[in-house]
Amino acid sequence: MTRIKSFFTLTLLGGVTVVLPIAIFVLLFRWLFQLVTEIIQPATDWLSTRVDIREAMADLAVVGIIVGTCFVVGLLVKTGVGRWLHHWLDTGLSRIAPGYATIREVVAQFLGGGGNASLLNGQVALAKIFGADSEVTVTAIVTAEHASGDYTVFVPTAPIPTSGIVYHLPRRCVQLLPQVSVEAAMRTVIACGSGSQLLTEAAGPIDRL
Fold first, then answer.
1. Residues 91-130: b if buried by 16+ CB within 10 A, e if exposed
2. Is a pLDDT exceeding 80 seen at residue 92?
3. Which pTM does this prediction carry?
4. pLDDT digits (tens, 9 = 90+) for 165-200
5. Which one is predicted more confidently, 65 or 91?
6. Could you write out the DSSP letters of every residue in 132-182?
7. Going along the chain, which residue ranges are E strands?
8. What span, in angstroms and rounded, lies between the C-alpha atoms of 49 and 75?
């Protein structure tokens, strides 16, 4: 039963990861033309004209169709052909729609999926970008460790964590937080700092570096 639940959940999330960035991108453009409130209505009207059900039931049926579509897409991207189609669509949208790549990365971070590989494989840290004597620390992801012991860190900006600044800092300016996951740190960035006590509690007192 647990394996079936895990298979269903992972497959559905796989489909959502593919579908959601595209859907959000479409929603943003429809919002610009004041059509957001009509997104579900056309599908509801179409269904209600063909099946004798109330509008509320039609809305539920449409939601069910959307969930089912995400699950089917999740199954599809598990295949070789599906992965190729996803890569082709992903590459095409990234070229013609500049905001799509950012939306995709944000969705991947929310769902804990595969966003930027160097970031997800990095390590969370608090960095003193103004020098070791500064009391100002920033949330950072260590993306490289050098032979000298120094670090290269990426400092994400809120609320879009895939944009930010790269710093090259001496070891004494970087405190690693191995007990904090990259996904958890990115969620605090997306939330504009909300939940950052997870980082400060893991680091200890303010004079920790």
1. eebeeebeebbbbbbbbbbbebbebbeebbebbbbbbbbe
2. yes
3. 0.46
4. 999 999 999 999 988 888 888 888 888 888 888 888
5. 91
6. TT-S--EEEEEEEE-TTS-EEEEEE-SS-TT-EEEEEE-GGGEEE-TTS-H
7. 123-127, 138-145, 151-156, 164-169, 174-176
8. 31
pLDDT tens digits, 155-167: 988 877 767 899 9
Which pair of tokens denotes residue 137?
């620390």
Q: Look-up: residue for tokens 């969620």? A: 187
DSSP 124: E
Write the Ramachandran bin of 66: left for phi over 0, alpha for psi from -120 to 50, otherwise beta. Answer: alpha
Helix (H/G/I), strand (E/B), else coil: 126: strand
Bridge partners, 145 (sequence order): 151
Whether residue 112 is predicted with pLDDT greater than 60 in this model: the reply is no
Q: Are 140 and 125 in contact (CB under 8 A)?
A: yes
Between 2-16, 32-46, 66-80, 172-186, the lowest mean confidence (pLDDT) is in: 32-46
Q: How far apart are CA 189 and CA 206, in angstroms?
A: 20
